[in-house]
TrEMBL record:
Keywords: Cell membrane, Membrane, Transmembrane, Transmembrane helix, Transport. It comes from the Bacteria. Coiled coil: none annotated. This is ABC transmembrane type-1 domain-containing protein. PROSITE patterns: ABC_TM1. Residues 73-289 form the ABC transmembrane type-1 domain. Its main location: membrane.
Length: 304
């Protein structure tokens, strides 16, 4: 203990730098945890957290009987699983293609073009999507010009198309940004591995399969853990921009449902119960995925 305390004193400048971050986490991350108790209470705006009446698991019973909640769960899982199936592998493939390019200027141009959508808010990109998908929008004009449509339709008013619109618009926005970690990891790979593989007659695909992907396994594992653990947290900003009264039965996700129940309707206990349930399931998914990815890293965990 004495040696640890002496080391702490010897690094007092660094410790002072860390204190604001610790204080921020305590105030905004840990103290609010006390409010989770309202999930087990009948809380209203005229109550305090401590004075509200306890109702036990009543709010959770209501959740299981709420058809609108399960509709939101269905939409969330459908959209998130589609995003995971496409959005997890496409950035890896794009990063490898960019890395293998020989023309430096073209490589930088493609990287920049793919990154740019990430820096625009969903308000901007959502407005563009609404305009493009409207009856006289860009997509309809394009489809009619090649003979795939006779007349334009508003695609966002057709519920059956919403999941794919949400998935592909999210890919458009985030795929380029998702390549950053992979490109950083590939830049640290020793070039002599590839030189030795070429001498042995390995093709480019073999080099990718035997060198690039195995050395990217820790980064791939980390991204997989984060993606799976966040599978119940579909993009709220995107939903608010693209959702309308016609596609709501396909666009309502858990996050927007919680917002509606808590902020719009004032049922804070119910909304907190839903949020708590989602958080618990996300932690379970995190631990399970971490356990699975250990096998990809020779028994080594990338987070725990």
């Amino acid at each position: 203990m004495k040696s640890k305390f002496n080391r702490f004193l010897s690094q007092w400048q660094l410790q002072w730098m860390v204190l604001p971050g610790i204080a921020f986490m305590i105030v905004f991350n840990y103290i609010p945890i006390y409010g989770i108790s309202i999930a087990f209470k009948n809380y209203t705006v005229v109550d305090s957290v401590s004075s509200a009446n306890w109702v036990g698991l009543e709010n959770f019973r209501i959740i299981f009987e709420d058809t609108f909640f399960w509709e939101a769960v269905r939409n969330t899982l459908a959209i998130s699983l589609l995003k995971l199936a496409l959005g997890f592998f496409i950035p890896i493939a794009l990063a490898i293609m960019i890395y293998e390019m020989k023309d430096g200027k073209l490589k930088k141009t493609i990287q920049t073009i793919s990154y740019i959508p990430h820096f625009f808010s969903w308000i901007v990109l959502g407005g563009m999507m609404i305009s493009w998908l409207s009856t006289s929008g860009f997509f309809n004009q394009l489809l009619m010009s090649v003979g795939l449509m006779d007349k334009g339709v508003n695609h966002l008013l057709e519920p059956s198309k919403y999941w794919w619109i949400a998935v592909f618009s999210d890919l458009w926005k985030e795929v380029g940004w998702g390549t950053i970690l992979y490109l950083a990891g590939m830049s640290k790979i020793d070039p002599t591995y590839y030189e030795a593989a070429r001498i042995d007659g390995a093709s480019k695909l073999t080099q990718i399969r035997k060198i690039t992907l195995p050395l990217l396994t820790p980064i791939i594992s980390l991204n997989l853990i984060l993606a799976v653990s966040g599978i119940l947290g579909s993009n709220l900003d995107q939903t608010f921009v693209l959702m309308n009264s016609q596609n709501q039965n396909r666009s309502e996700v858990i996050n927007s449902f919680v917002y509606k129940m808590g902020i719009t309707q004032g049922d804070f206990s119910y909304a907190t119960a839903v949020g708590l349930g989602v958080s618990v399931i996300s932690i379970i998914l995190l631990l399970v995925t971490n356990k699975v990815t250990k096998k990809m890293n020779n028994g080594q965990s990338v987070i725990l």
